[in-house]
Write a structure and sequence with these properties.
This protein is an alpha+beta fold and 198 residues long. The protein folds into two domains: 79 residues, SH3 type barrels (Roll); 70 residues. The chain contains four helices and eight strands. The strands form two sheets. A five-stranded antiparallel beta sheet has the order 4-3-2-1-5. A hairpin with a 2-residue loop joins strand 7 and strand 8. Helix 2 crosses helix 3. It is rod-shaped. About 7% of the residues have low confidence.
Length: 198
Amino acid sequence: MKKDEIKIGHAYTAKVSDRIVTVRIDSTNSHGGWNATNTATGKRIRIKSAQHLRRAVGDAAPANRRSKKAGAEITPADEGIAAARAEAAGPEVNPTVEVVTGQPVTAKKTRTRKPAAEPKPKRVSALDAAAQVLADAGQPMRVKEMIDAMAERGLWSSPGGKTPEATLYAAIIREIATKGDAARFRKVERGQFTRVAV
């Protein structure tokens, strides 16, 4: 709405704290805007800008006041004010219509849970596959030989790495260094490893 359209004593729908409510403009505020009262709660609020007001609801003066024009005819404007007063007095209760805006309320959607998917088979790591190949071989092997044996048996294959041998070698050395005697591998010669019985 525009500033010059707002009249003191009239009711308007306004956006207050992200909600549309009916307010009655009581007076102008010394800091700008207007002092108003929320008709639903009776709480006093400040309307800082005319942009917060949506549309006029009607004259907010009490219904028992008489018009200054005694014996004046009822005009269409007076009928609109009376209708607005009736609207502001209390809307009909309808659970499918929102009281503030009069818009239909959409039913809340209930979520249905998807059935639990079957767990994917756990992929064997290169380190576990190497330990299995060494245990089956029963003799020391080089890392390159372990990689080839793992691929042949379908235990593990490189997912596109350029140097799977270097990666596996580093992983075996790291397990030996961190676990010590509890490690599954033992270095027997340069570049050769054997499986330790656990």
